[in-house]
Amino acid sequence: xxxxxxxIIITIVLVVAAxxxxxxxxxxxxxxxxxxxxxxxxxxxxxxxxxxxxxxxxFFEDQQKSKAVKVLLNVLTNKxxxxxxxxxxxxxSMNTEDAVVNxxxxxxxxxxxxxxxxHDDVSENRSTILFTIHKLxxxxxxxxxVDAKGFVKDYMAFQNKIYIKITPxxxxxxxxxxxxxxxxxxxxxxxxxxxxxxxxxxxxxYYVVKGKFSLDFYNPNPYxxxxxxxxxxxxxxxxxxxxxxxxxxxxxxGGTVDxxxxxxxxxxxxxxxxxxxxxxxxxxxxxxxxxxxxxxxxLKNGRDFFYLxxxxxxxxxxxxxxxxxxxxxxxxxxxxxELSEKSSKNIMEYNSxxxxxxxxxxxxxxxxxxxxxxxxxxPNPLRKLSGTDSxxxxxxxxxxxxSFDGAGKEESADNWFESVYYTxxxxxxxxxxxxxxxxxVLVVDKKRNQIxxxxxxxxxxxxESSGNLTGDCREYSIKALNDSLFEFKxxxxxxxxxxxxxxxxxxxxxYHYLQVKDGKFVALESxxxxxxxxxxxxDSYLQGCYTLGFGVYPDRKxxxxxxxxKEMLQYMKNEIYASYKYRFKTKEWSDVFEYRFNSSDTTKNxxxxxxxxxxxxxxxxxxxxxxxxxxxxxxxxxxxxxR
Length: 643
What we know:
The chain is α+β, with helices and mostly antiparallel strands. It is built from 10 helices and 31 strands. The protein starts with 5 loop residues before the first strand and ends in a 15-residue tail after the last helix.
């Protein structure tokens, strides 16, 4: 199985070449023992405590003796900080004796090791590092993978705390930031909190809140937060409230439409100008800013459309308006662009001395179409919390590149929808360091006169991966199964092993089933590799580009196929059973799916026939017909699965 990229330290990626989580190459050896792994980690830690980096390197597999490993060892031995250059401000230590060990299979185990951060003037902090350990033939152990994302983030936070304590504020924060902190404290006599401030032409605006503001607000889906617990408003540099405290979210000034401020309430959008005049009530589902011309934006309310005119008045309802005819006029549509700390005219800051980044609240239409995250953190040029200008010591994203890949070539009855594609690359800094890619599809639905968007991570499952593909396959397309259900397929990082010596599926097609609901794409949940859950299979699903992997590094090889092999068909069938926690009769298949579906739930079912849907049964029969070379004799159900 191809390994998901694991982030070891800052912007350096630890390439896990030696292991590739080689679940597909089992050996008849005893499983790793927990006590043996603790002894191994204690021996490793002994060299760390002694500062013997060269000796500590021998605990890693040969291919892991990289620059990334050296940086990690420098941090653990207290020779440098996570930037790899400067001396650390505090002491770091590991407690390997109490490591939490989890045996994965005959070759691999993981160990969670607690780390401690200590400084004389600051209370101790703790973090963890996740080691993956490989038991080699002969009983020798080696570290083959390290996940230090959380460790790096916690390390930087503790370093910032110390740096703030020992450094004068004027050497950390710009004068305009210090003045904003002071004013924000004054505003707390009128409001419960001040969450951000936005500097526009050297003047500062304050985002004020009444009620309880929770950090859960910054989750990817902020509308899971209970907005009735707080409301937001905006105060100008003269400390006059120009937007009343009645909104769920107020965007960056000028971020959506130049010179205007987007506001949101109960899922609806509106606009104010910078003087506090209400331009558009928060009654609109979408606001689409326009590239040029006499109108500033298109306003959508249900099935009705309006223009926001150049004088900021709103037109009458547009007659026979077709969004498909106007889509090329919408800002950023059909364009490639890159966002960074330098792309915004203004700098919006967190009202927190501990947070080092600036914040951008994406225009709602780009967030709803999933082209951009709702909240974006970029390095803040007004703050120097890390004590260094090194990119490795910064947080947030270095840049987000949105690349237009062109229009789709899909055909539909009556040509009722059109599609375009984008590749999105988020260059993360800090603990997640690295370039993460995803694929976005926009669909213009001519029947409902709307634009729909969906962004697919190019990886299987919930494990974080960069989505950077290495094989020859590059497929993406979308088709309508009916008026309200679409099938979006992308070449993705799959990384599942097949039975026996058949190798693994490294990369290939992943299918996403998108239901149109309330004017948005909603992905139907599925953890299966193959499209057996929501549609009936036909021969078209047996075709496609896949990269297969064989063996273990350094002798591992790959090959590209344009169809499903017999071994892949067997996996496809048994994956249906495994998704219902079926207890396989052979150990080989049990091992294949041991960690695929909710591995924390060890319940296994001897029979899952009652759980199989109509479409599951149809697809099992279809696959059997291909495996056995017999004609298919099953009644064809509707496309959507039914019990």
